[in-house]
Amino acid sequence: MGVSVDTALVDALLKSAPRPEKAERAAEPAAPVQVRRGSKTVSDWANEARAAAKSAKTLDALADAIRAFDGSPLKAACEQAVVFDGVPGSSLMVIGEGPGAEEDRRGLPFVGKAGQLLDKMLAAIGRSRTDNTFITNVNYWRPQGNRNPEADELAVCRPFVDRMIELVQPKLIIAAGGVPAVSLLASKDGIMKLRGNEYAYSTPDGFKAPMIPILHPAYLLRRPQDKSRAWRDLMLIEKRLTELS
Length: 245
Ligand code: URA
Description:
By secondary structure, the protein is α/β, with parallel strands linked by helices.
């Protein structure tokens, strides 16, 4: 599905989604979001992102373009852009929600408590970010306080996300949590309905890969009773990766 982003719809859907990192971020004070848009609209910034993403021919060039991009209002208030980790060209790509405090400090995705659980989940199916998995997010800059990224913040990152998928060329994509699942699939359903099912994802330029949403590892830290669901989803992912290789 080459999806054009309906930011109002995604915003409404995301506002009803639980914040997975709550447990991890509970100690943080809520702080006002600093909006830095200048005279440009969200669609101006998304167009700028699209042009920058398109001209990036390698993942390193894309990472530089993301770091240089000024269209996210979150950029001013965080340490750095958190772009990707793992092995370029991996058959498995994991896309999460966005950096938390630890990721912002270290500049790498999924390195806090939730990331440690994600590493264990991947290890259970023979996958790791050092060998055969690529990890990124739908938003590259840490939101202040304890909140989901807004639809506008996701919309300006989206061309970079799609270009990253095209450069990695994964055989299968995991959407880790409600925010990436709902926004990438432009779905009216929440993560509980989406998880464990396979969807056909396609970038606007036509790269296609199956996408399987899973429960976010931070959610599983708060609700370990749901780990059996996560396990079932991982078994499906392992089976599909075998079939697709
Ligand atoms: N949660 C995410 O979704 N992504 C990260 O990089 C860290 C925590």
